[in-house]
């Protein structure tokens, strides 16, 4: 069997018996298959050369089919695969598989192209329908735009009229603004003047408030101050009752001058008279006449005798003379009676008032106020009771006035 090489892989190809002759050569049919491609190429090449040499002289008698066949042969040669024959089985199978894959790809491209053509046709149909709809919509839009244009024109005219009216209103507002600015300037000037007046009035008010505060503080201080307590200060010193620092009484172990005693009696008589006037008590039987160190008590009826409420330096000598000593005692008893009347009036007007000592005739707190035929200690104790009672009545009278 003759050996033939594969045109792809260059391996020996075993030809079937039908393709060989008895002498071992290729059959005419087999050789034609192998060499058909070469003969076709050579023939086409020769034809091309003839055409090239005769191109200068046109062959009008050549049939049209010859040109068509020539073009078809050229196309087949150009599109023919580059592999020459014969091929081995493996290369043939590979080639067949490749061609199948290419065929499938071409079919896919064909199907895709068909789908694309179909979609393009449908799209064109839709576009034709859309164009009709667009034309109809465009007509409607034109009508709508014309209507809107007319409305806009009417609105523009109305806006122009309104603009004219607004300009007139603005002019009126400008005039009103000018008037308001003038009024504002006048108001600001008036406001400034009022602020100045207010500042002056505020300063005066603050000054008055300060004066009122000071006066109120002074009034409160004065209200808390009792002038009667300042005028009649009752206390005690070394067993003696004192009024304004003057001792009232005598003790054997303490010498007190009669001038001091008489001055103390004058202050005591004045205090009783002031309290009676303050409370509004009218004394009966006697009239008290305060005259400092020479105060007296006058009888209101009968002979209207006057009794001296003071003693003298020779009182111890006069004590032996009954009429003179009794006049001083009688004056002190009359004073005690007037004190009892004031105490009774105070207790009647204020049931809650409690006096420290009871007064009965010539006694106050079980101590006799008579000095004649009595001891100085008892007399001094009675005088202490007198001043203590006056102090209680003074405090009550001051509270009564405050209430």
TrEMBL record:
Domain Atg6 BARA: 222-398
Residues of the Atg6/beclin coiled-coil domain: 86-219
Ribosomal protein among keywords: no
InterPro entries from the UniProt entry: Atg6/Beclin (IPR007243), Atg6/Beclin_C_sf (IPR038274), Atg6/beclin_CC (IPR041691), Atg6_BARA (IPR040455)
A GO CC term assigned to this protein in UniProt: phosphatidylinositol 3-kinase complex, class III, type I
Keywords: Coiled coil
Protein name as catalogued: Beclin-like protein
Organism: Ceraceosorus bombacis
